[in-house]
Amino acid sequence: xxxxxFGPPGAGKGTQAQRLxxxxxxxxxxxxxxxxxxxxxxxxxxxxxxxxxxSGKLVSDDIVIGxxxxxxxxxxxxxxxxxxxxxxxAAQAEALDEMLNEQGLKLDHxxxxxxDDDALVDRVSGRFACGACGAGYHDSFKPTKVxxxxxxCGATDFSRRKDDNRETVxxxxxxxxxxxxxxxxxxxxxxxxxxxxxMAGIDEVAAEIASVLDA
Length: 215
Ligand code: AMP
Prior knowledge:
Blueprint lengths: L1 E5 L6 H12 L2 E4 H10 L3 H12 L5 H12 L8 E4 L5 H13 L6 E6 L2 H9 L1 E4 L5 E3 L19 E2 L6 H15 L3 H7 L2 E5 L4 H13 L1
Parallel strand pairs: 1-3, 1-4, 2-3, 4-8
Antiparallel strand pairs: 5-6, 5-7
The structure holds adenosine monophosphate.
The site of adenosine monophosphate has 17 residues, from helix 2 and helix 3.
């Protein structure tokens, strides 16, 4: 199964991708996570991407397409994967189709997580993640069960993304509406697009996505 979780920053793509890894045995491929790792490791791609990411603008297509092309060929992706944050432009969507074709693979679903713009800023600005296992949390909507301790692995180190602030979210939303949302007709024409209500609770959204995948 190959699926794309589609939606604006803060829609809950990462949260649902982590759930689907466990429930459906799929691998989460987040271009944002891969780029952040490249920035931390100061690789050539990381150095090229850093400034754009810090300001909330899109990183160039050639960088992200290259990263995904390499990643989907890896052994752990053979059982299926979830694209989280890719594609984000028409050129990326077309490149993805070519990559999948070359590998004899097919895109099964594109799930659009619809969320009101007003909710996105609050959702994004309260996010944090476990520094050890990467489990995602939110100050109000998904706090850890025990304060300061990761539910998943028990670690006590957490991090917040530098671009999860009100100003940068506005730029990220602008990029979403200018470059990413216009890709949706491409997928509705292919008959693979389904919309879910991303304003619902995490469990309800997970159930709605599962019902699409398991239909
Ligand atoms: P995310 O973690 O998906 O919110 O991505 C964080 C940042 O990484 C974005 O604001 C972009 O600067 C960059 N980024 C991630 N994925 C892509 C992509 N597919 N195309 C271009 N830039 C991306």
